[in-house]
Amino acid sequence: xVRIFLPFSALLLGLxxxxxxxxxxxxxxxxxxxxxxxxxxxxxxxxxxxxxxxPCGESWKGIECSGSSVTxxxxxxxxxxGTMGYQLSSLTxxxxxxxxxxxxxxxIPYQLPPNVLHINLASNSFTGGIxxxxxxxxxxxxxxxxxxxxxxxLSDMFGKLPxxxxxxxENNRFTGWIPKKLKDIDxxxxxxxxxxxxxxxxxxxxxxxxxxxxxxxxxxxxxxSVVILLILAVFLLVIVARKSSSSPPSHFLDDEKFNQKxxxxxxxxxxxxxxxxxEATSFxxxxxxxxxxxxxxxxxxxxxxxxxxxVMSRFSSRKSTDLITATAYSLEDLQGATGSFGLVxxxxxxxxxxxxxxKYEDGKxxxxxxxxxxxxxNGGSEEFMNVVSRILQLRHPNITELVGHCAENGYYxxxxxxxxxxxxxxxxxxxxxxSKPLTWNTRIRIALGTARAVEYLHEIxxxxxxxxxxxxxxxxxxxxxxxxxxxxxxxxxxQHTSWSSEDGYNAPECIKPSAYTLKSDVYSFGVVMLELxxxxxxxxxxxxxxxxxxxxxxAPHLHNINALEDMVxxxxxGLYPPKSLSRFADVIALCVQTEPxxxxxxxxxxxxLGRCA
Length: 613
What we know:
This protein has 18 helices and 21 strands. By secondary structure, it is α/β, with parallel strands linked by helices.
């Protein structure tokens, strides 16, 4: 009996112990599930899940573990799309990270595994710059970012990485000068970029052997010879042409001018320059459309012409069908998609109504804003359709798109594109144990995109349009965390609603809605920037009395670098460029000035934020 019991006990104990060894650390699981969703939940990642699971115990594809910690991620050449997610910094035990030879896009996130030794992100479609957080990876030995679409200038961040022995940034879109400290790296590849440094190629190939060097010299000599011969041939042709005619044909001069333009001006820049230098009398409706689509203002002299005033009048009064078409949804259709506007589908409440998530059988998802009929005058149908018409004239990549509307049986509904990442408010203030931290670069991008949307409303639309409700809950984020300002064009409704000074967004002059001006919008935007900087709510009654008002607490210290660093959102973990932080704070300080006349125009805010990037 004892002999039988002992083996059975051992087996039972083994069954109890095995799951304990296979259980993966919860931060690692959270990071990988976010990554899986960001990669568009690919079927080729066998074993992976969008929530829960046990990467180490269940042998997820490409994942290697030591005990309960993920140590290696090898996902090269699997045809993966999407982005890498925003929670990779939780993978503190990962030392090998390889997602090369895929189809990944977007920015390289700040939140990379902090203790990694080997990073290979080559042969993808990453854009933007190299995240500053890489400078904190003091154990990093190998970094391959070649064959992407990365741009900007290389900073001296690599000089802070004493163990880095291989760096590959070849075949990207980097410009400027290569930092001298990069010469200390044993193996560096920088060719295939638009460097200003004449020694770039020399640095790129400094680690090649002598045989390769001799070969390159031979090729170079041949190339120089060919170029010299071509120059001589062109020279002879010019002499012959001059002898045959005292003046060149006009088409030759036109071609030469055209080629000169193409050599120095990218297509978009040239088009913008031509628009900016056009005579005032030559403006048309199409020209104004082109300005709006490029996100820029017309030249300051265009309004001086009476003909242009006529054009602008036509532009601002055109029917919605000239700009964006919107579907007239039936009430029955929207009720079916929202569960009769049930509580389960309610995703938000504002001062003028609730927002519901509409889900259709074909997978389409929309956001439906149900306007409170009490704020509409005289039954509201005419007023509502006027608002719809105005909203349809707003076109900007950072403004939520109105795709439909409905006015039936006392219901007034606006139908928008649905943005699955929710609002900026959610990201900043509704964090859980697996929080969604926003990197400094992403915060700057959100601020800049939102500023461009407000600039469009204030300075490009005619007449100028006030928003009157700029707040983080009205800044929605798409899958790439790009901002989309919502509730644009609804300002007329706010004159019928109560006005609260305790939400923290309203400027001091806004005792009542009628006191609101364009500069009040600027103040509210400055408060949103403070949220991005500090991670705090605009008004928080749970704080000590002197800290409840975010502007009152933070504004006096925005020019004190030591106090400023103490105010930065702890979720950033110190990963931000100090100069960018200081510039960002300077813009905030201007926006939240007590006196409206001292606040900047939104076009000035956009320019200043561009220097923070």
